[in-house]
Structure formats: structure tokens, C-alpha cells
Design a protein that fits this description.
Length: about 600
């Protein structure tokens, strides 16, 4: 989601309780809808090189906004976790990057979904062991799940796994997860739970460091990498575990090819770019268009020592934009929110600052068939009609078009429309400012983190100037990332620019982002503060969808309500990953479909032999 620490991966019926303890394999993989792409005897995923050479040290810079770290535990709210720490943890299953939602056995060597879909049982591969040599047991899986749902973990995790009621140890190698209700996503969620040893945080005297207080206690996971060293919260080195248990698994063949992976965190983004050109690290994913065009250039690129390339991806875009905090009375009126949307001049930004590299977002699910288009379908109307009295009538028409300033459109016309909407909402220009009936000025703060300020400040400054033309005072404030994250977790902000990451099949993460319950949980993904019975009902239908058609209808309905609510000033997206890297790095010929560039590099690239 929006938080880096964040790690996104039933009632017991008589039939489930009588299931045998897996004397033989049941199912090697599951799919949320349909069947898994790869057969039971597959050798490796199509998007890896099974013959990739192993070796070398890959050095990387900040993979996101964080500029330092103060803990190894990525599952708690307090503090900032080290980059790459997810490489230490595995789950019972792992997804493939060329299917929207399938799960193949990783720690688990078979999977059984109960006929009533109220539970899923996993058998643990007898070869699976932690980095300390201990076998992975069902008790470890249960401990991990119970800890992640406890108050000591981030509330977002408890919300994410809310419909998994409990984990039951059937025998030392068998774990059963029981569900609150039948839901096709829940077996996938159960399989994605990060697993760690019960000994993580255990002191020599037998006492335990509280989970939410763990900082630099070495994680005990079962994954291919372990921490070798770290320094000053700015550098961390992972080394490949020579005793890793799962290297020969089909889901691991061709992956984890580097002997070591090092992260160096730079406090200044300009210094970070210059450090790459100076050869201080090996690969760089550039998310800022200006840097890609004007910064990632020079003699080393001309000579071929450094290379930059765009890689196509088919990820759902999610939503990137200026998020409005509805907990602030200032943003309660939809007319005000629409006026703020009209003040963003995307076409000017795209031509002057982005070199034409972006497309305007007009959906929470752009770049997929989950984006709402045209008029609502019968399936969508079945979800929307019960809430017709509470919804804007426009929801039952086509999705809203984003403001356009290309001729014959203009920023002036958009601002005139915004002024009219503000006047309808009770805001008029008086004594040098836009004021309400009580004479209070329209003023708010745009919160940013200082690590991204170099790239975002020109964008925000342009937006602020447009707002000034309406008499609105928007004050820009950049703070260090730790304080920024703390304020987000506490919902202490007016507006901020953030991203809801895209998904290929929406599910429980949407509840964390948009449900009324999550709006009141500090640290949740509902940064908007949305509380809507209509949205709650649509979310319920979304997570209960039994067919892909039902899921698409629910997602379209959700997209319509969210877009017509103007809770976010949508920004832009790109359908490519921009990657710069030094000569000698190589990647598989077949690209995955759905992937994040940083993870793709660490998991499937390699150093080509000289």
C-alpha cells in the first residue's frame, strides 16, 4: 500500500475437522478463479532463466521514499523497516507473475480447500527449515498468524486477514485456516501469510522481546537470503543462505541469482542519481520523468557502460493522486472536492515537466478491465440500486471525465467552473481570500516527505498557484519520512500525494483502503477517511464474489462511486518501468506481466559472465 512497512502477500466444520493429515498430495496449486496456468509437473515459471548463473553482489539504492531504517520487523507500525527485508520471509504459497491470482506451493507441498470453502488446510514440505536450521512447523505458522493479527502488529494486517478466524495445528506438519464465510480469496490470503520462527525475539534467558518493540533482533525466516551486516540505518547487506532449503523447487528455479544484495540509502534524491552515474550502485528504477529524460544521461550512457531501458508492464495502476482527508470538515462537500480536482492542470504538467510520458488517471483500476466504463451493467445496478437514495445520481451514468486543458479546453474555463462550485458550497472571495459564511479563509496543508520533495515540489507548486487563483491558500510542508509516516498512521494531515498500489484481482486490501471500519483504525489504508454504507456493501459483494464476472461488476461499481466522490485529485500513470543499470546485468527474455521493477531485478536478474 502506501506504507512501506506494510507486507502484502471457519467456523470449523465437522468435515474439515475429520480431514486426514495428508498421507498423499492433494493439490499443488490453487487459483482464485479458473485453474492455475502451470501443470503439476512444471519445471519453472516462463519468465525466469533456469540456467541463469549464480554469483556477484548487486548494489541498489533506495527502492522507495525511505532514506533510513531503524528496525528489521516490517509488520509493526512504529519505525521504518530496512529495505529488502521481505526477502527474509516466505509463505506457504507463492504467486506467479503471469497470472492474476494463482498460488503455488512454497512452504506447503499440498493444499486442500474444504468442500464448503470454510477452511483450507496446508501440509508443510518436510524439507522446509528456517535459517537457524530448525524445521518449519505448523506451530510456527500458527504463531506467525496469531502474532500478525494481534494488537502488537500493524492494524492493517489484522484488517487484511479479518475473515480468517483462526489457525489450527492439525499435526506438526499440517495447519488449517478457518474462515468466517466462504470467500474465494481467503485460501489465497491464508497461503500468503508470512511465516517466521517462534524463536524470533527470544532471549537467551527464555524471555521474549515484545513483537511491537523488536528493532534489530535478527529475523528467523526460511527464505533464500539472510542479513549479513548493516550500518547506521543507511546500509544493509543480505547474503544468499548457502543452506537454503528450497532452491530446487519449481517456483524457485531461476530466481535469487545474486550471492549478495546491498542497499545503500541516500538522503538526497539528486545525490542518489549522481551516485548511480558515479558507479556506486548497479541498477536504478526511475519514477520521475524529468530525471529519466534529463538526469539519467551522460558519457557513461553514451559509451554503453550504463544503459537505460523501458520495460512494458500490465499492472493495474491503482490510484496516484492528492488524497483528501475527509476527517477535515473543509473537505466534506463533494462540490469542494470537485473544485480541487478542476484546479490540477495535467496537460501543462505533462508537457512542461513530464516530457509527455504520462497518461491521466481516470479510474482506481486503470490499465485493466476492472476500470468502469460506459453505463452500469445489470450486475452493477444490482449493487448500486439499493443505495440510490444515498448516491449521487451521476453514479448511475458514465464515469466522470477528468478536466482537460487542451484546446478548446483551458485552465481558465476549469477554474471558472471550480469557482461556481465553491460558491454553491458557500465559499466566496472576500478580503483577499476565499471565505465561508463565518469569514474563515479556505486554507489547508499539503504534506509531503522530504525524500521526495525534489521531484514533487515543482508539481505541488504549480497546483498551489492554480489554487491561489481561486483564493485558496495551500501551504506546502515537507517532513522527514519517519515523521511523515507517523502522521499518516495517525491521519494527521489535510492533503497528501500518495499511491494506492494497483492489483490484478481486488480483494481484502480494498476493505483496508475504503471500508468504514478501517477509517477508524490508525495505521489503516483508509487514509481518505471514507465512511459510506454503500461502499461497505459493494466491498462485501466484492470479497464474496464467486465468479470473475461478479468480481468485475463489484469492482466497476466501486470505481464509479469512488470516482464520482472526488476523494482524490487523480494524477497520472505509465505503462512501462523505467530502469537504468550497468552493463553486465541480464534478465530473462520473457517478461512477466504483473510485476514491480525492483522486485523483478532482485529476484530474476543476474550478472552475465564476461
Amino acid at each position: 500500500m502506501l506504507r512501506p512497512a506494510a507486507f502484502v502477500w471457519v467456523c470449523g466444520t465437522l468435515l474439515a475437522s475429520l480431514l486426514p493429515a495428508f498421507p498423499a498430495h492433494a493439490v499443488y496449486a490453487i487459483a482464485q478463479y479458473g485453474e492455475p496456468k502451470y501443470p503439476a509437473d512444471f519445471k519453472h515459471f516462463d519468465y525466469v532463466n533456469p540456467d541463469a548463473p549464480k554469483g556477484g553482489t548487486l548494489v541498489l539504492a533506495n527502492p522507495d521514499r525511505r532514506t533510513s531504517f531503524d528496525k528489521f520487523n516490517p509488520f509493526t507500525m512504529r519505525g521504518t523497516a530496512a529495505p529488502g527485508i521481505d526477502m527474509l520471509f516466505e509463505a506457504l504459497t507463492i504467486g506467479s507473475s503471469d497470472e492474476p491470482a494463482s498460488a503455488y506451493g512454497l512452504l506447503a507441498d499440498d493444499i486442500r480447500i474444504a468442500p464448503d470453502r470454510l477452511s483450507t488446510t496446508f501440509h508443510i514440505n518436510p524439507r522446509a527449515h528456517f535459517s537457524n536450521g530448525d524445521p518449519v512447523t505448523a506451530a510456527d505458522v500458527k504463531f506467525s498468524f496469531d502474532m500478525l493479527k494481534s494488537p502488537q502488529a500493524s492494524p492493517a494486517l489484522a484488517a487484511y486477514f479479518t475473515d480468517i478466524t483462526r489457525a489450527v495445528v492439525v499435526d506438526p506438519a499440517t495447519i488449517r485456516f478457518e474462515f468466517r464465510q466462504p470467500n474465494r480469496e481467503l485460501p489465497m490470503l491464508a497461503g500468503s501469510i508470512p511465516v517466521f520462527s517462534q524463536k524470533w525475539g527470544l532471549k537467551p534467558d527464555g524471555s521474549r522481546v515484545p513483537f511491537d518493540q523488536m528493532a534489530f533482533e535478527q529475523p528467523i525466516g526460511s527464505a533464500p537470503y539472510v542479513i549479513e551486516s548493516y550500518e547506521n540505518g543507511r546500509t544493509i547487506t543480505y547474503k544468499r543462505d548457502p543452506n537454503y532449503w528450497g532452491a530446487a523447487l519449481p517456483v524457485r528455479v531461476g530466481t535469487n541469482n545474486f550471492d549478495r544484495i546491498v542497499y545503500k540509502l541516500y538522503a538526497d534524491p539528486v545525490v542518489r542519481v549522481e551516485a548511480f552515474k558515479a558507479g556506486e550502485y548497479d541498477a536504478y528504477v526511475e519514477n520521475v520523468a524529468r530525471n529519466w529524460v534529463r538526469g539519467i544521461v551522460g558519457k557513461k550512457f553514451d559509451s554503453g557502460e550504463l544503459i537505460k531501458r523501458k520495460f512494458e508492464q500490465h499492472n493495474g495502476t491503482g490510484m496516484q493522486g492528492f488524497l483528501l482527508n475527509l476527517r477535515r470538515p473543509l473537505f466534506q462537500d463533494v462540490r469542494v472536492r470537485k473544485a480541487l480536482d478542476l484546479a490540477l492542470d495535467f496537460e501543462w504538467l505533462n508537457s512542461r515537466l513530464f516530457y509527455g510520458q504520462y497518461t491521466r488517471l481516470d479510474s482506481f483500476f486503470a490499465n485493466t478491465d476492472l476500470k468502469a466504463t460506459g453505463l452500469p451493467s445489470p450486475g452493477e445496478l444490482a449493487l448500486l440500486n439499493p443505495w440510490r437514495a444515498q448516491l449521487d445520481p451521476a453514479v448511475f451514468g458514465p464515469p466522470p471525465l477528468q478536466p482537460d486543458t487542451d484546446p478548446p479546453g483551458s485552465l481558465r474555463a476549469n477554474l471558472l467552473q471550480a469557482r461556481a462550485l465553491l460558491a454553491q458550497a458557500g465559499w466566496t472571495y472576500k478580503n483577499g481570500a476565499l471565505r465561508n459564511a463565518q469569514g474563515q479563509p479556505f486554507s489547508f496543508e499539503i504534506l509531503d516527505d522530504s525524500g521526495s520533495a525534489q521531484s514533487t515540489e515543482p508539481i505541488i507548486a504549480t497546483y498551489v498557484r492554480n489554487l491561489q487563483k481561486l483564493g485558496i491558500e495551500a501551504k506546502y510542508r515537507a517532513v522527514d519520512f519517519a515523521l511523515y509516516q507517523k502522521r499518516l498512521d495517525a491521519f494527521d494531515y489535510d492533503m497528501t500525494g500518495l499511491v494506492y498500489p494497483g492489483v490484478q484481482l481486488p480483494g481484502s486490501e480494498q476493505i483496508d483502503r475504503f471500508s468504514s471500519k478501517a477509517a477508524g483504525e490508525p495505521g489503516s489504508g483508509n487514509l481518505i477517511g471514507l465512511r459510506s454504507p454503500a461502499v461497505d456493501a459493494i466491498l462485501h459483494a466484492l470479497v464474496k464474489a464467486q465468479t470473475r464476472e461478479q468480481l468485475v461488476d463489484a469492482t466497476h461499481a466501486l470505481d464509479r462511486v469512488l470516482m464520482h466522490g472526488y476523494y482524490v485529485v487523480p494524477q497520472w500513470y505509465s505503462s512501462v518501468h523505467r530502469v537504468a543499470f550497468r552493463r553486465g546485468l541480464a534478465w530473462p527474455k520473457t517478461l512477466p506481466l504483473y510485476y514491480q521493477a525492483n522486485d523483478w531485478i532482485t529476484s530474476t536478474w543476474w550478472f552475465a559472465p564476461h
